[in-house]
Design brief:
Layout lengths: L6 E10 L5 E4 H4 L2 E4 L7 H7 L7 E6 L13 E5 L14 E5 L5 E9 L3 E5 L9 E12 L2 H13 L12
Antiparallel strand pairs: 1-2, 1-3, 1-9, 4-9, 5-8, 6-7, 7-8
C-alpha cells in the first residue's frame, strides 16, 4: 500500500533544528500516526511521504517554508504589561509558555518591553529554520470513517501543525 490522501500513516521519526538539537522524535513521543492529506503534520513531511510504501526511509531536510514557516509579523503581539504582573524580572529574549486557544502550551518570546506593553513573538521557535527530518514508515492503512471525520473537523478548526505550532492530535 502507498501513502496517499486519507491513509493512516505511522512513522518513527526525528526532527532537529538548524543547531542539530532534537525538536521531537519517536524516541521521546513514540511513533507518530496521522491521516495523510489533512494538515495534521508538516507540509514537507507529507510531500516526502506521498507515494511511499512501508519501510521507506528518509534522511534529509524540510525547507522552512514547508516546515514551521517564515516568521510572520502578524504574530508579534502587544500585550498590556499588567498581564505579566506575576512574573518577576521581565526581560527581552525571555521565553514564556502560555496556553493557546487549543488548551496547549505554546512557547513565546518577549521581543520588546516599554512602560505599558510587552510585545511577544508567537511564531514557532522553529520559524525561519530548515528542519532535519529522518523517518521510517512503519505502517500504512485505510482511514476509518471516524478517523476521516475527526481529521476533517481538525482541518476545519485550523489546528493542523503546518507552520504555526507543533502539536499532534
Amino acid at each position: 500500500m502507498k501513502v496517499t490522501n486519507d491513509k493512516v500513516v505511522t512513522v518513527e521519526y526525528s526532527l532537529k533544528d538548524n543547531n542539530n538539537i532534537v525538536i521531537d522524535s519517536s524516541e521521546i513521543s513514540g511513533p507518530f500516526t496521522y491521516v495523510h492529506g489533512h494538515e495534521q503534520t508538516l507540509e514537507g513531511m507529507e510531500d516526502i511521504l506521498l507515494g511511499q510504501e512501508e519501510d521507506f526511509i528518509f534522511d534529509g531536510v524540510i525547507p522552512c517554508e514547508k516546515a514551521y514557516g517564515k516568521k510572520d509579523k502578524e504574530f508579534f503581539m502587544p500585550v498590556p504589561k499588567s498581564e505579566f504582573e506575576n512574573i518577576d524580572d521581565l526581560k527581552v529574549g525571555m521565553s514564556l509558555s502560555i496556553m493557546n486557544n487549543y488548551d496547549e502550551s505554546q512557547d513565546m518570546e518577549i521581543i520588546s518591553i516599554d512602560d505599558t506593553t510587552v510585545t511577544i513573538d508567537a511564531n514557532s521557535p522553529y520559524a525561519d529554520m530548515d528542519i532535519k527530518f529522518t523517518c521510517k514508515v512503519l505502517e500504512i492503512r485505510d482511514a476509518t470513517e471516524e478517523e476521516l471525520a475527526e481529521a476533517a473537523e481538525e482541518e476545519e478548526c485550523g489546528c493542523g501543525i503546518e507552520g504555526d505550532h507543533d502539536h499532534h492530535h
